[in-house]
Amino acid sequence: MSGETSEKTELEARLETVLESVEGIGRVEVMLMTGQDTQSFYGSEGTEVTGVLIAAEGADNSVTKRNIQEAVMALFQIEAHKIKIMKMK
């Protein structure tokens, strides 16, 4: 898991901004789980995204949920089972 949970990483903040700009998604909270990988380009310190947790207002819609999942899969090249999307209250 990334360093401090109380602060958003730049990558988490950027992902939230992009997802919130998509119609139907609404407000979003993102948490990225990371591991060490010297071949990765996700961060200057050589981290790779190993899991993603997303709470989104529009996650009760199956099409919206699938769109979020496909976007995250494309961005981070991770499998669907490493992405959890939940409805934000």
Topology of this protein?
Elements: H1 10-20, E1 28-36, E2 47-56, H2 62-76, E3 83-87
Provide the spatial order of strands within the biggest beta sheet.
1-2-3
Number of strands: 3
Number of helices: 2
The Cα radius of gyration reads 13 Å
- Intertermini distance: 24 Å
**Helix proportion range:** 25-40%
Poorly predicted residue ranges: 1-5
Content-based structural category: alpha+beta
Overall 3D form = globular
- Sheet-strand content, in percent, reads 25-35%
The chain-level mean pLDDT equals 86
Along the chain, the helix and strand elements come as HEEHE
Largest sheet: 3 strands, mixed
What's this, in brief?
This protein has 89 residues and is an alpha+beta fold. The protein has two helices and three strands. It is globular, with a radius of gyration of 13 Å.
Overview of this protein structure:
With 89 residues, the protein is α+β, with helices and mostly antiparallel strands. Helices cover 29% and strands 27% of the residues. The protein is built from two helices and three strands, in the order H-E-E-H-E. A three-stranded mixed β-sheet has the order 1-2-3, with helices on one face. The longest helix has 15 residues, at 62-76. It is globular, with a radius of gyration of 13 Å.
Jot down its keywords.
89 residues
